[in-house]
């Protein structure tokens, strides 16, 4: 199980040349759209081997973000923003939400009779690392967190 990391707060997050972002309308189609988006990204970067894990993990983060406050809009509708950045050792995929509190630590073993609470267990089990970063966007007056996971880069990356 990977360790959960809570990073220090950042203001007005910026993305370099290796970063992409997408907005998904905040409804039940968002997890599926995020899965398609992340799969296309990893395929374009020569990482078909990472698609399955990335799809599962981004789906969990977007599903969690559906329950939180909204920070973004698309044509007047609430939206979820997701990002992918490519660092020297790993790809970081993350989702913003409007709740600045860190996500709960997932239980080692979720109860068998519960219908919720398994998402972060999957994230912790599959991701190389995962965590959350509180943020403040003073220009828009937004506060919240960026929940992310990392998948390692390999020699096959383009």
Could you explain the architecture of this structure?
It is a single chain. This protein has one domain: Heat Shock Protein 90, CATH 3.30.565.10. Helices cover 24% and strands 34% of the residues. The protein is built from three helices and eight strands. The chain has helices at 30-44, 51-65, 119-126, and strands at residues 4-6, 10-11, 19-25, 72-74, 77-86, 90-97, 129-137, 142-152. The longest helix is centred in the N-terminal third of the chain and has 15 residues, at 30-44. The protein is globular and about 40 Å long. This is Histidine kinase/HSP90-like ATPase domain-containing protein.
Q: With helices defined by DSSP (H or I, 4 residues minimum), what is the helix count?
A: 3
Identify the CATH architecture.
2-Layer Sandwich
Number of domains: 1
Distance between the termini: 28 Å
Mean pLDDT value: 80
Biggest sheet layout: 8 strands, mixed
Comma- or semicolon-separated keywords:
158 residues; alpha+beta; Heat Shock Protein 90; eight-stranded mixed β-sheet; disordered N terminus; transferase; Histidine kinase/HSP90-like ATPase domain-containing protein; kinase
Explain the layout of strands and helices.
Elements: E1 4-6, E2 10-11, E3 19-25, H1 30-44, H2 51-65, E4 72-74, E5 77-86, E6 90-97, H3 119-126, E7 129-137, E8 142-152
Parallel strand pairs: 1-7, 2-7
Antiparallel strand pairs: 3-5, 4-5, 5-6, 6-8, 7-8
Helix pairs in contact: 1-2, 2-3
Give a quick precis of the structure:
With 158 residues, the chain is α+β, with helices and mostly antiparallel strands.
